[in-house]
Design goal:
- The protein is about 80% helix and about 0% strand.
- It is mainly alpha-helical.
- The chain has one domain: MFS general substrate transporter like domains (Growth Hormone, Chain: A).
- The chain is globular.
- The two termini are about 30 Å apart.
Length: about 400
């Protein structure tokens, strides 16, 4: 695809009815959600001084959605009013956030991850709606362009959310930052409630939840590309999960910077990935995805050479840049190959798998507590992800 053709496609996408308001609301929702990765962890670390508890809390903020994802995704495929379910999810997230602020440091440690469960219990309602409505709003001719913007939206959320959370945590404290996240989440709920774009769905619909569940799981079982991207992306998510606790430790022990600067490291990952999505743009395929995982994993070996925050940001940004083709390519292939009648179910199931591996990474990262060891594990995991994307024998 030529640069001119690509630019024309993105302009056409932006002129698509309902698309601008949809993508702006989704981006705000994601940015707000990613604030917790930094502010929530810093709040627990500040009030309890326990890295393992911070890791368990981060896991508790994603595991419930992984367990409920397949069923709630099937519900979305047959629900008549998706916006009600999205608003419910956002308001439950507010309750979970405020519960963490109240309990952290003032109640038994086990109550913190317990209330974090509320934060993500119904998250698949939002995630599934965001992914499944996109294909209908963009249309098949602009779906690859929309997938690139989707990857950019996710990456911008990873940049702005942690940077905002990290900066505000250093100025007003982690607790006030989590309270601000709760306020922004209320705003998102209001924007969703008044925007009919979130009701977009394909004409092909499963008649029952059981039918949607069967359609989605059958597609995951039969379609090799969906299986391959599921395995590779879940492994990659495990690697990044290590860094939920690993980046604050890396910032303090190896970059000689405050723990809250870990937000800038997440921003470097996402910013690099955005650049890589467009600079390394090409037709999505499993070989490109596997190559991307392989080289980004090896690039993490350079992180140990950084002795300052600026150097760490640059080297981690390089890793993010090399991730661009894997991230956007995975989204594009899933949007193309998922059956419309089970799109929400498939997307939430895949997101659930990633959430489980991300949370497992955060728990292990909190247990290891050594940034050098975490870097080595990160490299190894991404090399396995590269093999999973490109090896037919293990997936066919």
């Amino acid at each position: 695809m030529s640069v001119t053709a690509a630019e024309g496609g993105f302009r056409a996408l932006w002129r698509r009815p309902r698309y601008p308001g949809f993508v702006m609301t989704v981006s705000l929702a994601r940015t707000t959600g990613f604030m917790f990765n930094t502010a929530g962890v810093l709040l627990v670390l500040q009030r309890t001084g326990s890295a393992p508890l911070a890791g368990v809390t981060a896991a508790a903020a994603v595991v419930p959605s992984a367990l409920t994802g397949p069923i709630l995704g099937a519900w979305l495929d047959v629900a008549h009013r998706r916006r009600v379910l999205i608003v419910l999810d956002q308001l439950l997230s507010v309750a979970g956030l405020m519960g963490i602020v109240v309990l952290a440091g003032h109640a038994p440690n086990w109550t913190i991850p317990a209330v974090a469960v509320i934060y993500s219990l119904t998250r698949p309602f939002s995630m599934g709606s965001f992914f499944s409505a996109l294909a209908e709003i963009a249309g098949p001719e602009l779906l690859d362009h929309a997938s690139a913007i989707e990857a950019t939206s996710l990456n911008l959320a990873v940049i702005i959310g942690p940077v905002l959370a990290g900066a505000l945590s250093g100025i007003i404290g982690p607790a006030s930052t989590v309270e601000l996240q709760a306020a922004l989440t209320v705003l998102v709920a209001g924007l969703v409630a008044v925007n009919p774009a979130f009701e977009a769905r394909p004409p092909e619909r499963a008649p029952t939840m059981r039918g949607a569940l069967r359609t989605g799981l059958h597609a995951l079982w039969r379609e090799r590309v969906l299986r391959a991207t599921s395995v590779s992306s879940s492994l990659a998510a495990f690697g990044w999960g290590l860094m939920l606790v690993g980046f604050p430790l890396y910032a303090v022990q190896m970059l000689h910077s405050p723990a809250h600067t870990s937000g800038y490291l997440w921003a470097a990952v996402a910013g690099g990935s955005i650049l890589g999505t467009f600079a390394l743009h090409g037709p999505p395929g499993l070989r490109r995805i596997g190559l991307s995982y392989g080289v980004l994993g090896l690039s993490a070996l350079l992180w140990s050479l950084a002795g300052t925050l600026v150097a760490g940001i640059l080297l981690i940004g390089l890793t993010g840049f090399l991730e661009g083709p894997a991230y956007s390519g995975t989204i594009a292939l899933r949007q193309r190959l998922t059956p419309p009648a089970g799109r929400a179910q498939v997307m939430t199931t895949l997101a659930s798998i990633n959430a489980l591996t991300l949370s497992a990474g955060s728990v292990i990262g909190g247990a290891i507590q050594d940034p050098q060891t975490l870097i080595v594990v990160f490299v190894a995991i991404n090399l396995v992800a590269a093999a999973a994307a490109t090896t037919r024998r293990s997936l066919a």
